[in-house]
Amino acid sequence: MKIPKGFTFSTAEAGIKKPGRKDLALIYSEEAAAAAGVFTTNKIKGAPVKLDIARIRSGMAQAIIANSGNANVCTGRQGMLDAVEMARLAAEGLGIDEDLVFVCSTGVIGTPLPMDRIRPRIHELAKGVNPAKGINPVKGRARTSIEDAARAIMTTDTFPKTAAKSFRISGMEVRIAAIAKGSGMIHPNMATMLCFIMTDLSIGKGLLQKALKASVEKSFNRITVDGDTSTSDTVLIMANGLAGNPPMAESSEGYAAFRKALDQTTGLLARMVAADGEGATKLIEVLVKGAATKKDALRGAASIANSPLVKTALYGNDANWGRIMMALGKSGIAIEEEKVDIYLKRLKIVEKGMSMGKDDEAGSLLRESKEIKLTVDLNMGPHSEEILTCDFTEQYVRINAEYRT
Amino acid sequence: MKIPKGFTFSTAEAGIKKPGRKDLALIYSEEAAAAAGVFTTNKIKGAPVKLDIARIRSGMAQAIIANSGNANVCTGRQGMLDAVEMARLAAEGLGIDEDLVFVCSTGVIGTPLPMDRIRPRIHELAKGVNPAKGINPVKGRARTSIEDAARAIMTTDTFPKTAAKSFRISGMEVRIAAIAKGSGMIHPNMATMLCFIMTDLSIGKGLLQKALKASVEKSFNRITVDGDTSTSDTVLIMANGLAGNPPMAESSEGYAAFRKALDQTTGLLARMVAADGEGATKLIEVLVKGAATKKDALRGAASIANSPLVKTALYGNDANWGRIMMALGKSGIAIEEEKVDIYLKRLKIVEKGMSMGKDDEAGSLLRESKEIKLTVDLNMGPHSEEILTCDFTEQYVRINAEYRT
């Protein structure tokens, strides 16, 4: 994986998660970077989210310090003091302005951060990203890989999530790399989700924010696991300009290439987050097409993707399309029962609102597939929208019944 | 249980459900009754629902024929022909006008009714409610009890649901009795739910409809299991006037007593439906008080009651109040984190948005309780609303993954 120039990573274990698991990560850019962010719409926001929302106004960042295992949400005044201290300690260790450090926390809500255990680790983290000390002199590589950083921000994720793309602007290579974590409380606007995107592109903060917002809208705002919306969702991007391209404008030749690479990066991560939904065994793409309006397409797809009954049926390898009709009907969109066609992958299972008698074939398709595409054609108009989700399993219940124990 | 005068029941086994389980029920009033109904808001409606919506305009009913195991939804033109035929056969057997027969079906969506097995049972059902043949000559009671009828309309319900109340109007006893079934797709407006209410009250159809609507609003529209809304939800009431009271007007002395008895009846059944949510181990009452508006109170309570994360935590005996805060925050209502108090039963677990450190006590309370009351005080205003729900378990997933297998 090609890492954008000037970015290094380090991780540490502060004992916030279970012993033996890294739970602190630091991402550092050797140059201060243009920065943009998109944050949870939940009215209850973690202290780090509040801090980052205030700091992102400057449009500049140089480091992100993140911990997993504790979200630092509903922790009152002390929670904000802790978030500020995490940033300050990292800034001291890195020798940079503390306003350039962003803080992200994910995990349990309502428990104070164990700062006594976190504090001593932060200087160690800062040393780890120092190019002088962080590069393995034998292999010539940073000692901490981007995968290590992705692993350190995991909570109930089952695998670390990374993605990278590169593109060229007038012969110069520009790189994008990103990490993300899921995997419960995943719902449009956004998800229990952290995503940190790094690029060596040279671009102004305003345009960076615009591009990020559009990209999140098409990726992380199109996935759902359980309909719950986290208090910690944060997507941050840092663009440090080390690729050496002339500062990018919206009219620049390379802007479309950047947008495409950014969308591919966020799209890949969103797909991983949906596939790694808590307890999931299947990735499910719900495409509603033929809708009268774009909003109808989105609401219809979201209603299907959020229906526990649809998701448990798919887990049970049962193409119980009646529940899809139910979910469409309850969404309140314009629909005529006798116009609805439904496809499981390419198999038409419902025509004009009625069964095609394909239960057995559909069951076989479900049994052999880890990725399912449900297509609903409302035959009411030209609009379509897609949402990614996963199936709903006993394991989801177990994970969330036992989360704090 | 005191049955309103003039109502009799019969049940039969048509092999729609598994062998050995009754799946047809007939409720008969010896006099044509004033009738009212409330139906699902889902845009996809079963054929029987469409038929009943048309018939209820007359405000008169004399019989309800119901089957479980198959909802007769998304079954096209044949579905409507089948619903009409069920009513006609029942009417023939009973010797009454077919427009006075209402049809309700609950169960799987999208599969045609097995009319070849249902048809021959309907005359048998009609014979069963005939007072001449239906009364056990030895015991002097109807052979089929109201519990039997309640059992015959069960799908994944684990127990039959019946309730009855009586009250007096100028010395005359008036009786109300009702049966209901749940237990997935349970959500306000309404539930995967059938409820049939019988009373011997004398009342006009307009006032009956008004009373029923108000009563449903406070009972079945205040429960949720999984946020899904069925295509078959139906509440019907028949009032045959055999109590002999002077026809009731809104200004009548007894109207308040009737409303109270009706609300108690629907309230009891709604509580049973929530407690018997698929896979549920706990009944959960979510009270949001101190809200700025009534709508905020309801939306806040619904968001908590529908959150899979809250419901799995309660299943795991974990008073994970951070998830309650998350659910409040995502609901979009007016909220200030530092004003929120949360109680588990009478134990205050959150004060001013922060933990009271009562996790262990709360865990014990949860472990020993089958009924949990969560009270959230937003401290923003005078409004409160309550919603009933249940916890969310592996068993819910299993039931719904295997429903059609």
For the structure shown, list the relevant keywords.
L-amino peptidase D-ALA esterase/amidase, eight-stranded mixed beta sheet, 405 residues, six-stranded mixed beta sheet, Ubiquitin-like (UB roll), 2 domains, 12 helices, homodimer
Element layout with pairings:
Two copies of one chain form a homodimer.
Chain A: E1 7-12, E2 24-39, H1 47-55, E3 60-70, H2 76-94, E4 101-108, H3 115-129, H4 131-134, E5 135-136, E6 141-142, H5 146-152, E7 161-169, E8 172-181, E9 194-199, H6 205-218, E10 234-239, H7 255-275, E11 283-291, H8 294-305, H9 308-315, H10 321-330, E12 341-344, E13 347-351, E14 354-355, H11 359-367, E15 371-377, E16 383-390, H12 394-401
Parallel strand pairs in A: 3-4, 9-10, 11-15
Antiparallel strand pairs in A: 1-2, 2-3, 2-10, 5-6, 7-8, 8-9, 11-16, 12-13, 12-15, 13-14
- Report the uncertain regions of chain A: none
CATH topology heading of the largest domain in chain A: L-amino peptidase D-ALA esterase/amidase
Rg calculated over all Cα atoms of chain A? 22 Å
Count of spatially separate domains of chain A: 2
CATH superfamily of the largest domain in chain A, by name, is L-amino peptidase D-ALA esterase/amidase
